[in-house]
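Let us work through a complete example step by step.
Step 1: write down the sequence.
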Amino acid sequence: MMVPQREKKAGPMKRLVLPALAAALLLLCAPQLPAAAAPGEIADCNPQDRSKEAIDACSRILSLPGLSALDRGKALLVRGFLHYGHNELDLARIDLEEAQQIIASPDISRMLANLYMALGRSDQAIAEFTRLIDAGPPTADLYGGRGAAYQNAGRFDESIADFNQVLALKPDDLSALNNRASAYWKKGDLDTALKEFDAVLAIAPDMAAALANRCMILARQGHFDQGRPSCDKAEKLTPGDSLLLISIGAAYYDAGQFESAIAYCDRGLQSMPNAAPALYIRALAEARLGRNDDSKRDMMEAERLQPDVAAYMAKVGMK
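Step 2: predict the structure and record it as tokens.
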């Protein structure tokens, strides 16, 4: 479970955040309702209002007779966006997939690609990113998204190739260098990965993702004492970051410190309860401690959320 470098968003990172361009699209697409609609109905189905009441307002719009296909697509898009903000990922997927059938847009494709990533549907994310790249123009952002999806699918050489494309377009992109190093780590080339993480940190010594990933590699190589300061620094820089906490938990697991591994996974799961890799790592640690019932329960839930999680984690050496 490596930590991808991501841009810092405003506000707490407790929920998924849609691309700013997609959010702007939503603001332009309020449905024009029939005269039978109640006053204020349109305003209540508002992507800027993240309340459950806004979701209910969109549902009422969708139940109105005489709603055109176009306006149905717009209301589905807004409701999908709102479900996404509430981390109701399957509901968001259903709405956005239907909206895309009605009002196809590259921005909806990008939202779906990000949503598939969050749901562990890497092949579908790859397909969405590939459609966007093929439609052109291919951007560093799209190559980076597909590179991450390839990595999540265990297709590490293709991930490296996409991050090479990012770096060809943006040679100073440290996020891409960090994520390419992650792909080298996952395919088992620890020495190359460590060199790339060190190169990132030589330029950006406070990049938390690279620090945590460096710590994980050293733990895997049996040098956790050397790596632990990097984990500690990463945690201080971005306290409460779920992906980072789960990755630190993986480092502690590789170091044989199973109680600490469980504690870090617990903290990561507080805001990412559907993170199958965290449940899987916790299950492994619980099994090592003889907590077989807990381990079986976590393993079953991880496999329910992401059916290929065991194969993927074994591929990256987490056993």
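Step 3: interpret the result. The CA atoms of residues 63 and 72 lie 9 Å apart.
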